[in-house]
Amino acid sequence: MLHQITLAATLAAAVLPSSVSAGPLSSPKRGLVFTPNDTTRADDSIWIEKPSSITWYYNYEPEPEPDYAKISQSELEFVPMLWGAPSKLDDTSFLTNVKNQIKNGRKITNVLSFNEPDGPYSWGGSNMDVVTAAEVWVNNIEPLREMGLRVGLPACTGAPTGINWLRNFLKACSERISESGQTKNCTYDFVTLHWYGNFDGLASHMGTYSAEFPNKTMWITEYNLADESLANTQAFYNISAEYFDRLDFVERYSLFGAFRSDASNVGPNAAMLNKNGQLTDIGAWYLGRQGTGIIPTGKSGAYLSTAPQVSAALLVALSVLALVS
Ligand SMILES: *[C@@H]1O[C@H](CO)[C@@H](O)[C@H](O)[C@H]1NC(C)=O
Ligand SMILES: *[C@@H]1O[C@H](CO)[C@@H](O)[C@H](O)[C@H]1NC(C)=O
Ligand SMILES: *[C@@H]1O[C@H](CO)[C@@H](O)[C@H](O)[C@H]1NC(C)=O
Ligand SMILES: *[C@@H]1O[C@H](CO)[C@@H](O)[C@H](O)[C@H]1NC(C)=O
């Protein structure tokens, strides 16, 4: 309880004095969701220029970006991902691939599993039924965990169906293991979350995961406030970064926004680059630098900028602390 009050008081102090709250400039938890666009490959170097507070990245693939392949794990940790089901169920190429990278000297310690398996392909999900997912997991992920790598539970969509999918998956996975004569459950080291929406929803979503998976640390591997005004998007960015940095059980987070504003599928204001490939305020803040004042614009011009609703954000923050503590 004392802990809760302290958190709330600090948060309130940060929000109340003016209409803006300064987000934390740098954080060791911060990562890059790498989403290159072939027409603007020159932008790839932006994310690895120094100074940067980005310590890790993933690219939805088992192997590093060719552009980044020479960077050591200690400089920028690459985290391989097993995105979805291979075409053959007994395929173990992900496992082999990660083992080979380790053999060749890349010190891989963390692995991400399925990307939005509860979502259809048309939304970027990997659209997997839990029995297939269990088979692929047992063939590829369990052996890596036995080698001592840390693995994340699949990252479901932010929809309420996500937790249900994970419950059914864990059940199917344990059944699949017991068929092979072993008595153990499918195990994992951290849960991974996606969220698109406001801070209230984000914090409540995290509360749901805390309740379902007690004592598991969290990685928020995709999040943003989509299609909102610039002021609201910046306020959301600041308050969520502050929140993630404050909570010990949040181990890592990665903002979905490392692309140009005119190519953004979450609205121009959520993008870390403007349409000319220059860092926006959010982009610069995320890298741990001072804001640039550069305004992101979409294909048809800028979004209207309105004042952030500070008192609403504070109420939400306070009510949410009760949920996740
Ligand atoms: C967000 O934080 C930055 C500093 O990191 C600050 O300059 C800016 O005013 C803040 N904006 C809002 C809307 O909270
Ligand atoms: C597997 O998980 C179930 C449900 O959480 C639990 O009841 C059971 O004891 C676990 N089994 C093992 C071997 O850990
Ligand atoms: C959570 O961790 C604490 C401290 O390690 C332990 O006492 C508690 O039993 C754990 N709770 C669950 C539900 O695993
Ligand atoms: C790639 O970038 C160009 C130029 O910004 C944009 O028009 C295009 O829609 C982008 N492609 C994708 C798949 O986002």
Structural write-up:
By secondary structure, the protein is of the alpha/beta class. It has a single domain, classed as TIM Barrel. The chain has helices spanning about 1-15, 95-105, 130-145, 160-180, 200-210, 230-245, 280-285, 310-325, and strands spanning about 30-35, 55-60, 75-80, 110, 150, 190-195, 215-225, 250-255. The strands form 3 sheets. Strands 1-2-3 form a 3-stranded parallel beta sheet, with no helix packed on it. Helix 1 runs antiparallel to helix 8 (about 310-325), helix 2 (about 95-105) packs parallel to helix 3 and helix 5 (about 200-210) packs parallel to helix 8. About 40% of the residues are buried. The model is unreliable at about 1-20 and about 300-325 (pLDDT under 50). The site of one 2-acetamido-2-deoxy-beta-D-glucopyranose has 4 residues, from loops.
